[in-house]
């Protein structure tokens, strides 16, 4: 099955091309586990992706270090302008997954390939070793050049965005649930078409995978875990 091959490549720190759905954004993202990111990967995303280079994280990690969705931050502000800016008219979703943006404190401006890779990798390593509010504020500052996206609690069972799809891949791969994602933009100034994304994957020896394949794999795992839990209860 292609999902098994995709997970193996993901575990090895390779890029995957992940397409969400014909019924959603109809976008393909370059996706890579954040703990493997080096400057060359940021350059690849910048050159061949073209969209925002973001850090997707699980809700558990966000809760542990105290991160909130940006829309929730706006809701609690006293500034009426920020409240009016809350995106309640998204054509493809009910809620944005964006949180704050960060830079690692060891960076210079934060935007270079070296600086963004440093921010991404150090955030992933922090989450892998000791995710805490204290560790977060000690090592990172905001605003920065790496936007953070927070996944829904039940991942693709709740929402089929690239944030959830990428974190589901991390969970299926038993990797830290911090993933770097970047939308792919075509030469027509629009999101890269599915056909062009498939060709790009073939030309660069990468795996193209659709959201429904990730969803089905996750459902199988959840069903197995539930059945195993019920069996142990009976025993």
Question: Any overview of this molecule?
Answer:
It contains ten helices and seven strands. The chain has 235 residues and is α/β, with parallel strands linked by helices. A hairpin with an 8-residue loop joins β1 and β2 (28-33). It has a seven-stranded mixed β-sheet, with helices on both faces. The two termini are 33 Å apart. The protein has helices spanning 2-11, 39-49, 59-65, 70-76, 80-84, 113-129, 133-139, 162-172, 194-203, 211-234, and strands at 16-19, 28-33, 50-57, 98-104, 140-150, 178-184, 207-210. The chain has one domain: DHBP synthase, CATH 3.90.870. α2 (39-49) crosses α6 (113-129) and α8 crosses α10 (211-234).
Largest sheet properties = 7 strands, mixed
Fraction in beta strands: 15-25%
Number of strands: 7
By helix and strand content, what is the structural category?
A: alpha/beta
Number of domains as seen in the coordinates: 1
Rg (CA only): 18 Å
Categorize the overall geometry: globular
Low-confidence runs: none
Measure the end-to-end span. Answer: 33 Å
**What is the CATH T-level topology?**
DHBP synthase
CATH homologous superfamily designation = DHBP synthase
CATH class: Alpha Beta
Provide the succession of SSEs: HEEHEHHHEHHEHEHEH
The residue fraction in helices comes out at: 40-55%
Mean pLDDT: 93
Keywords:
235 residues; alpha/beta; DHBP synthase
Summary, kept brief:
The chain contains ten helices and seven strands. With 235 residues, it is of the alpha/beta class. Helix 2 packs across helix 6 (113-129) and helix 8 crosses helix 10 (211-234).
């Amino acid at each position: 099955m292609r999902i098994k091959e995709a997970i193996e490549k993901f575990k090895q720190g390779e890029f995957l091309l992940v397409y969400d759905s014909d019924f959603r954004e109809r976008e393909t993202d370059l996706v890579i586990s954040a703990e493997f990111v080096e400057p060359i990967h940021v350059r690849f995303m910048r050159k061949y992706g073209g969209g925002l280079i973001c850090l997707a994280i699980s809700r558990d990690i966000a809760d542990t270090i105290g991160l909130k969705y940006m829309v929730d931050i706006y809701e609690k502000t006293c500034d009426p302008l920020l409240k009016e800016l809350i995106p309640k008219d998204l054509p493809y979703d009910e809620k944005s997954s964006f949180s704050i943006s960060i830079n690692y404190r060891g960076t210079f401006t934060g935007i270079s390939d070296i600086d963004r890779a440093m921010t991404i990798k150090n955030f992933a390593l922090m989450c892998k070793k000791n995710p805490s509010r204290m560790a977060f504020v000690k090592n990172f500052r905001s605003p920065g050049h790496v936007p953070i996206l927070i996944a829904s609690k039940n991942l693709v069972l709740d929402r089929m965005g690239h944030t959830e799809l990428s974190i589901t891949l991390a969970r299926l791969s038993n990797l830290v649930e911090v993933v770097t994602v970047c939308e792919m933009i075509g030469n027509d100034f629009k999101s890269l078409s599915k056909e062009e994304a498939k060709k790009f994957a073939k030309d660069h020896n990468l795996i193209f995978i659709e959201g429904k394949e990730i969803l089905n794999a996750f459902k199988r795992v959840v069903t197995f875990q539930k059945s195993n839990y019920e069996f142990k209860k009976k025993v």
